[in-house]
Amino acid sequence: MTDQVPPASDAPQAPARDGVAASAHQATGTKDGTDQPRVDESTAEDTEQGLRAQVAELEDRWRRTVADLDNMRKRFAREREQLREEERARAAADWLPILDNLELALQHAGADPVAIHEGVQAVRDQAVDLMARLGFPQRDDTGAPFDPRRHEAVSTVVDASAKPGTVVHVVKPGYGDGPRQLRPASVIVAARGK
Length: 194
What we know:
Elements: H1 20-28, H2 41-107, H3 113-133, E1 151-158, E2 167-172, E3 185-191
Parallel strand pairs: 1-3
Antiparallel strand pairs: 2-3
Helix pairs in contact: 2-3
């Protein structure tokens, strides 16, 4: 009778006589005998080197990003300062015609007083218009209720014709309003009579 080799199956096989199967198991298993694959030391070193290279690349990218951010911050600061200087120059240039007109008024100070008054009034109107164009219009607060956010009371006066707590006279006008208020108006406020 001939020896037949049984077909491969999932049934456990008897250990080989010469220990070949046992050594094959040890070659693919771990030291503790489990069926986990053994990690080759050269593969571990390759993986470690690969991870170190990735870390180095990420650090390099991080440093470049930080440098780019710093450069951008510096550029924006320079641009902001340049815009501020340009805006100052524009505002100052808008004041030049007013200064020129004041110089003319001073040159003609000995002329007719009525003409001088009219000239100074025209220069004042020109300045008030410029303030409005810059975003700070002059407010007319006479008769308005006193508001500590918009007014600074410098005095009170008893005035029978005015309701108590209202502005009866503006000493210095206020410019702008709300968050764009350049300064509050200095005012005299009506008080209750005794």
